[in-house]
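Exam revision sheet. Question 4 asks you to relate a sequence to its structure. Input first:
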Amino acid sequence: MMNEYWQYLFEASICFAVTLPGLYLISLKNGLHRFNRFLSIFLLVFSLLCPLIEFQIPWQTEGEFYELELEVYEGIVSVVPFKQYPQERSYKSPTNFWVYIYFTGCLIFLANFLRQWILIFQIKKYAKRAENKFSNIYYSGIIKAPFSFVKWIFLPAELDRHSDADPIILHEMAHLRQRHSIDLLFIELLRIFFWFHPLLWIWKRTHKIIHEYLADQEVIHSGYSIQEYLFLLRNYSTRYFSAPIFHSFSSPIIIHRFRMLTKTKSPKFVKLPYLLFIPVLALLLQAFTLVPLTPQSPLQNFLDPSLAGSEMPTEVGTIEVIDNSIPSISPIKAEDLTKISSHFGMRYSPFKKKKEHHRGVDMVAPIGTPVYATGDGQVVVAKLYPNYGNKIVIDHGSGFSSLYAHLNGFNVKAGQQVKQGDVIGYVGNTGKSMGPHLHYEVRKDNIPVNPMSYISQ
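Answer key, structure tokens:
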């Protein structure tokens, strides 16, 4: 589960890094503020969801076909197609040191997020509430600059009944009406989990600038002259109340607001650059959401008779095995085996909720049940994988290998020689698993074949 989380963080971070530069370069130079706000949130949500979405595409294109050949080796007949099934990607998990660093950062940012909420309620507790129709306005003697948050506006005590308060109140009311605080809270929650991503900090700043553009625009449309409003902004430019989840009237991004307020009408073709996002998002979808769909092949039909058509054999017997280097015994003893929950071939995936090719058999047994090497050979893999969990692979020679997944523990290590019947591990529930079981595969020349065709005892 944690390996999948690291993979998700990595892929979402790439999406952030690809989409933010375009937003930053385009949105701060035109007057499409409402659309830019929508686009910013859309790109954030897209970057979060893109690694979680999967679309299947055919692995075999039109005109391709499978060829079969028969190989005879010491009395064993094998059916080998030239085209191979796609192999599962492996992701290297971070070391414990970096895991500690990551979660420490998450805790620090979570504590800072909660501290800001506490600060708000402390200011509100000791502030004076306005005695007029603006019942959500508070005057405080401990702040130097106006700011708003969720449904409250906080002004310095000196602005009580001051003429400067009117445009400032209009500005902060615009933030409240348009629910800008929800955007900032969303981004701030993301920063708790993606605190290591430098571009997310820039994203928050860009989004804040868009909010200020929208609020400034509403003040000007209400009748205030641009010159008077710019003068007011300049007077408050040296005051700033810093907090990531607040909207401060005199924020340090005031230079951008000056430029936008004095900007002439946007060019006629200002919307054209936004079209560049279409191929960028399409490439991200292709990179992270398209997975190969392996078609049903003649090999599957031959080794799984239930899937075969009328032109294929209806029965496949156990292949005669002479050499102990061939994986020819059950990895779990019959008296320990509860049942076989999933056979080789096409099946309905409990995770993806759709049919896909199953490369082995799933043998259900209690956790801790011994798992035996099914043939003589050398252990080439004995480590943890995201989907397979604790996995062992044994190379038996002559093109044969066997795989044992979701183990609870190892009894061998990579490089070790094993004999048929040696205990190599124990049934577990590690990796992507619905319950305690052993996922067992046999491969010939790296092609998954039906393990049940080789089990003779």
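Marking note for examiners. Residues 55-91+296-453 form a domain with the Glucose Permease (Domain IIA) fold (CATH 2.70.70.10).
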